[in-house]
Amino acid sequence: MAATVIEIRDVTRHFQAGSTEVRALDGVSIRVERGEFIAIMGPSGSGKSTFMNLVGCLDRPTSGSYLLEGVEVTSLSRDERAAIRNDRLGFVFQNFNLLPRTSALENVELPLLYSRSSTLSQAERSKKALSCLERVGLAKRAEHGPSQMSGGEQQRVAIARSLVNDPSLMLADEPTGNLDSKTSDEIMALFQELNAEGRTLIVVTHEPDIAACARRLVSFKDGRILTDAPVQVRRILAAPARKAAS
């Protein structure tokens, strides 16, 4: 039986916009098992970004329960949630969020520097970061900066960075939003490879062809989950990650 990574029960998130209460999430419940690959879709204002912020411990719900590997996240302090973000979650963003004057290797090392549980030496951190770059096909580009890389290479560095602390869950917010279709497919092929290795992934996207690369599709509307079902016609991609970046 698969272990439960996320269990969210009747979560709400309400905001005040002047005199109006905005119900960004309105009674959301969902369970995510280890090894799942989920795509999140929905129009602007549907609640998907608010949902990802809560799952990523960047925000707290107004009410309801959120358990991450059995830990009730809603009751944790800001520092405790920050530790969970760094040690248990891996983030991949649309704009890559790499430090511009820092090498690929140093960018990947960053989460290890901030990890409270890490006792690695500098040499051990570099070795681990280089291993993650090798996993995404960029070991030969370890000393290059973001300005010397294509968009697809920068996103691979971001994926390597998200892997370096061996996270329980990877969260990707529009990871192909700034990439052309060929490069987008290469990135999604890499995600499929990581999922096949047992990684748990949640990807937010506006693009149906990107969502079709996942195994399960959850759609949001008006702060609620509208549908939650397996992807019916899945796109299986086979872009060779290591070869593409060499």
Compact overview of the structure:
This protein is α/β, with parallel strands linked by helices. The chain is 33% helix and 28% strand.
Write the layout of secondary structure elements.
Blueprint: E1 4-17, E2 20-33, E3 37-41, H1 48-55, E4 63-68, E5 71-72, H2 78-88, E6 89-93, H3 104-114, H4 122-135, H5 151-163, E7 169-173, H6 181-196, E8 201-204, H7 208-211, E9 216-221, E10 224-230, H8 241-245
Parallel strand pairs: 3-8, 3-9, 6-7, 7-8
Antiparallel strand pairs: 1-2, 1-4, 4-5, 9-10
Helix pairs in contact: 3-4, 3-5, 4-5, 5-6
Please give a structural write-up.
Mean pLDDT is 93; it is low at 241-246. α4 (122-135) packs across α5 (151-163) and α5 (151-163) runs parallel beside α6 (181-196). The protein has helices spanning 48-55, 78-88, 104-114, 122-135, 151-163, 181-196, 208-211, 241-245; strands spanning 4-17, 20-33, 37-41, 63-68, 71-72, 89-93, 169-173, 201-204, 216-221, 224-230. 33% of the residues lie in helices and 28% in strands. Strands 6-7-8-3-9-10 form a six-stranded mixed β-sheet. The chain has a four-stranded antiparallel β-sheet with strand order 2-1-4-5, covered by helices on one side. It is globular, with a radius of gyration of 18 Å. β9 (216-221) and β10 (224-230) form a beta hairpin. The chain is of the alpha/beta class and 246 residues long. It has one domain (4-245): Rossmann fold.
